[in-house]
Amino acid sequence: MGDEPRTVSPLKNFLAGGVAGGCLLLAGHPLDTIKGVLGLYKGMGAPLAGVAPMMAISFFGFGFGKQLQQTDHNTPLTYTQIFLSGCLAGVFTTVIVAPGERIKCLLQVQASGGKKTYSGPLDCALRLYKEQGIRSVYKGTVLTLIRDVPSNGLYFLTYEYVKHFLTPEGQSVTQLSTPNILVAGGVAGILNWTIALPPDVLKSNFQTAADGKYSGLLDVLRTLLREEGPRALYKGFNAVFLRAFPANAACFLGFEFALRALNELAPSW
User: Cα 176 to chain center, whole Å?
Assistant: First the structure.
């Protein structure tokens, strides 16, 4: 499949991934806070501090996965290798995503009417650790892996596949136009969430539940299906999919432009 014009650089992927995370947030944040033009980017500092490094680590993991499988930079990677590289990106991000989302879920439940137990994210993390140890901080990690490993694999695979599909015959994929990059990134974002949303719903239920409510991951699924039916697995579907296309289109466009700039500025990295 497509061209790999040079040896993959995980470091460049990390830096360009940080730019991608910023672009993803810039495009997606207004849709999260539709409260008038002036308020569109209000409160974006904290999410940016989390999203940019997370995407940097994601793209680093993807680049590292490609580097591990790339025996010769003149030989393009197969789609299976691209998928596996994306899966590795999901493993990398889980290390920081799982505890972050556990804390976010607990604070959201508290904000929606629960009793005020935590004064903020740091207090929440410290209390969880002191009271029940590191396992409590990382509660829901298996579900995060179930969500992020296959969905990231599909995310990067879809992006690469659509890019090559849209590349005119005889041209290099590196010359793909901006509109086509946006299409490839947007489609990748939608397919990513199609796979990721059901385990995301299960994970949120599991992470916010009182200790002992569920005996395990299958119990979360059984309870949700019994109480709310299969449609509950796609709770929040409309909001997520409305945001997925523009946010991920911007994300990959930012990544491509940043990577091209880095390749020109530091070709030997």
Answer: 24
The C-alpha angle with vertex 262 and arms to 25 and 92, in degrees rounded to 5, equals 55
b (16+ CB within 10 A) / e for 16-54:
bbbbbbbbbbbbbbbeeeeeeeeeeeeebeeebebbbbb
User: Which position has the token pair 């599991």?
Assistant: 206
pTM, to two decimals: 0.83
Maximum alpha-carbon separation in the chain: 63
Q: Helices 178-208 and 79-111, interaxial angle, to 10°?
A: 50
Convert the pLDDT of each residue in 163-208 to its tens digit: 999 998 888 888 889 999 999 999 999 999 999 999 988 888 887 7
CA separation for the pair 82, 93 (Å, rounded):
17
Structure tokens at 86: 């994306």
Determine phi and psi for 14, rounding to 5 degrees.
-65, -50
